[in-house]
Amino acid sequence: MKIAQKSLCVGIVGAGPAGATLACLLAREGVDVGFFDDGKRPDMVVGESLIPRLVTVFRKLGIEDDVAALGTYKPGVTWIFDENDALELSFTAMRGVLPTYAYNVPRKPFDDLIHETALKAGARFIPCNVKLEIGQTERGEKVPRLAAETLALVPEWKGKQPDLLVDASGRRRLFAKLLGLTAKVGQRKDVSHFAHYENVMMPKPAGQTVITRLKHGWSWRIPLQHALSIGVVVDKDHARQYGSTAEEQLEAMIDQNKPLAEACPDRKRISPVTTYANYQLISDEGHGEGWVSVGDSFGFVDPMLSPGLCMAMTSAEMLADAILHNTPSGWDRAFTDYLDWFREMLKAWQELVDIFYSGQIFALQRTGNDMSRRFPGKISMIMQRHFEKNISGMAGGGLTTHPYSRNLLRFMTRYGIYGHEPSDFAVL
Ligand SMILES: Cc1cc2nc3c(=O)[nH]c(=O)nc-3n(C[C@H](O)[C@H](O)[C@H](O)COP(=O)(O)OP(=O)(O)OC[C@H]3O[C@@H](n4cnc5c(N)ncnc54)[C@H](O)[C@@H]3O)c2cc1C
């Protein structure tokens, strides 16, 4: 049951998908929400390939038709792990668990849409570079506060700090940095370059996202309405072998992979190349008295299965519930539960991503194909479909932490691989 929050005031630092979703959900319930952003987002932002769990968030926000209008219908994902073999995952395997499709979206119009939705819900937007300072609670705990110059930009708050400050600043992790909080970084030290291209062959079926294993690292192809987004993810040191600039590295990595090069021999780049690095990170702490984190500012594991926006927007949903269903005196407990959920989700995503990097998933698929050939018939087919439904449900964001699905995957990767070496399919 929601508690009346009319007198509640929440300040959200960052208006990316996490911050804007939270602003919308709170403002709709009558909370006085101010969300701040410095407008420094470049036009080209990664995070264009979405997963089915997000469709349920779009429906909740009432924006699915708008997302469909600016995006591309995405029926599934194909992983090409060598020149002759691919694993094609269709979201129809998720029937009964999640919507059987997702969308690919260009980030600028997509982010603008969520922003507009938050404004329509009544949230107040404050364009500025937020300045913070360290405050102290009665118990002596260090907490973030809005600096006077930032607070002054919201005259309606009459110089009073909001009841709750939310860190939605993405990878800048403003609160954690201010308070000197630690984080665990992931094992991969990858760099990612991406750009938009035209004059290319679009993947089939239409809208399918394609992941290709490269000699080192992997690449994505994400079909958008007017372009194909091509990105590479590769170990930082290895990337240097392909050239000294991001442009040289991206183009050389495309040219040196046969399936990728054959799909776009006459490609024309129509955007600058944008680069990301060091993005695997999970914060050790995500809340304190009067503050809490949401989206990437708390953690992000890896882009391979596209969990980023799903985690950004579903964490906003979970946090909105925690705020709305409790009085401020119950927030400590509610935020602890919310962050336990967040950590468990990130752990489950990491576990899933790991079996793609280790090659286990592809060795498992080959074993399954061998079994179907040796023992054709209904039982093989039912087993295959059952496994597909669970793995798709996990990768789609609906069954990611489901104990049965996780245990099935653990069991199968441990005991279900015969005659194939996962390391032959590993992503280095
Ligand atoms: C290589 C790579 C590929 C990816 N591919 C995908 C994908 O295909 N699909 C997917 O779903 N996800 C993907 N992601 C992840 C996705 O981009 C992020 O998870 C998502 O953007 C996080 O949203 P957010 O709202 O938490 O943070 P952000 O989108 O980073 O928003 C944070 C906002 O805070 C603002 N801000 C920061 N500091 C201040 C300040 N001091 N004052 C005011 N404003 C401030 C910033 O300007 C920004 O607008 C990928 C990530 C990487 C690194």
Describe the structure.
This protein has helices at 17-27, 53-61, 64-70, 107-120, 148-151, 174-179, 236-239, 246-255, 258-263, 308-324, 331-357, 360-374, 378-395, 403-415, and strands spanning 9-13, 32-37, 72-74, 76-82, 85-90, 102-104, 124-127, 132-136, 142-146, 164-167, 183-185, 190-198, 209-213, 218-223, 228-235, 268-269, 274-277, 281-283, 287-288, 291-293, 299-300. The protein is an alpha+beta fold and 428 residues long. The protein has three domains: 9-45 and 54-69 and 106-184 and 281-350, 3-Layer(bba) Sandwich (FAD/NAD(P)-binding domain); 190-277, D-Amino Acid Oxidase, Chain A, domain 2 (2-Layer Sandwich), CATH 3.30.9; 358-425, no CATH class. Helices cover 38% and strands 22% of the residues. The longest helix has 27 residues, at 331-357. A hairpin with a 4-residue loop joins β13 and β14 (218-223). Bound molecules: flavin-adenine dinucleotide (FAD). Residues 13-19, 36-38, 40-41, 46-50, 129-130, 168-172, 174, 192, 276, 279, 295-296, 300, 303, 306, 308-310, 312 line the site of flavin-adenine dinucleotide.
Task: Please summarize what this structure is.
The chain has 428 residues and is α+β, with helices and mostly antiparallel strands.
